[in-house]
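Record now logged for everyone:
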Amino acid sequence: MKISDDIRCVDFPCADVDEKSYIIPAVEIDPVKIKVLMITEAPPNDKADYFYAAGSPFYLQTTLQAFKDAGANVSSIQDILYLGVYITTAIKCGKTQYAVSPETMKNCSRLLAQEIALFPDVKVYMLMGDVAIKMMNGIWKQKTGKRVIPAGSTYKIRGQAYYYEDKRVLPSYTPAGKNFLIEKSKRKMVAEDIREAFKLTR
């Protein structure tokens, strides 16, 4: 299955994103082998830096480092997929400013809901950053009437166990981008959360 064949934005209604950086993973995936969905915030403005881009894209470099920090022996996106982890972004276009508007999150939530539905055997959702947390909370609230992750700073709430149906939900921080290498405390927490995800899928 190729995700980009099933999920697409057709009208680009959002005003605060860069439509030129719109991207959905075009990699071939066997969905039944995916046990962890890692949802980060947004793609980079330069598609060459995207997780699944050719060569050594920057977003993948920092994400590989996060997995290595967690003790995983990985050197490519295929290695991460082999571990049963699929990485995607909550919104599908690069940001034009720091914050993402509620309207953009609402628009992109429709695509994200379609995307996660393609993976029936997922055991863990890793929500990497506030945008991913808010958007997934919104998707789940539409189905159940309540949010899964409570309001509050991620470092305060991440030590508790949250579930959507029988699937574990881990609120965390994005491993993609320059800040990941600088913010050592967040880097440590991301590694801890990846290790926890692996424990939950064994």
